[in-house]
Design brief:
Layout: H1 3-13, H2 24-29, E1 37-41, H3 47-55, E2 60-65, H4 68-73, E3 79-82, E4 95-101, E5 114-125, H5 147-150, E6 154-163, E7 168-176
Parallel strand pairs: 1-2, 1-4, 2-3, 4-5
Antiparallel strand pairs: 5-7, 6-7
């Protein structure tokens, strides 16, 4: 775990109130999914995972984040794991859904963590966002050319590119085939 990353994110979350905004596209797509175990990867305070668990008690959520400050502020109903996203402490294929918003690490291959039939909801800034945020670490921008590697062994169900004049981002919903 990078101590610099942890310190940076702890500083961001220190004194912050839990975000109330739920990802709008997650709200659109999630009702179609079969409830089960969900990982909110780099989920911060876990507002998206909490929303999902409030839809039906069959969702059992774990929020994984590098910031202990964020995790301490997450809702008590959520299970929390302090870890670096590139070194997840879970067994392979442990999740029926993965939420990953506003975060990208090129070392993560979603299929490794999804159970058969599992779904990933991924939304993050693309390389085109650099025109709006030139100081952002370019290593964490998502290049659409990485889709075949990052989503290997998954079927892309939805792929939406958005440039709203303030940010450029991609939303991808993908599913691991049932066996």
């Amino acid at each position: 775990m990078s101590h610099a990353d942890r310190a940076r994110w702890n500083k961001k979350y220190r004194g912050a109130q839990a975000p109330r905004r739920i990802n709008a596209r997650l709200q659109q797509f999630a009702p179609r999914w079969t409830p089960g175990r969900v990982l909110d990867l780099a989920g911060g305070m876990g507002q998206n995972a909490l929303w999902l668990t409030e839809q039906t008690p069959q969702w059992r959520a774990i929020v994984a984040d590098i910031s202990d400050v964020a995790l301490q502020s997450a809702a008590p109903a959520l299970n929390r794991v302090l870890c670096d996203a590139s070194a997840l402490p879970f067994p392979a294929h442990a999740f029926d859904a993965i939420l990953c918003t506003r975060f990208f690490d090129p070392r993560i291959i979603f299929a490794e963590w999804l159970a058969p039939g599992g779904v990933v909801f991924f939304e993050t800034f693309t390389v085109a966002d650099a025109k709006y945020n030139p100081t952002f670490n370019p290593a964490h921008y998502f290049d659409l050319a990485a889709i075949p590697r990052i989503f290997a062994d998954l079927q892309i169900l939805q792929l939406v590119e958005t440039d709203d004049g303030q940010h450029a981002f991609v939303t991808i919903v993908a599913q691991r085939q049932k066996q």
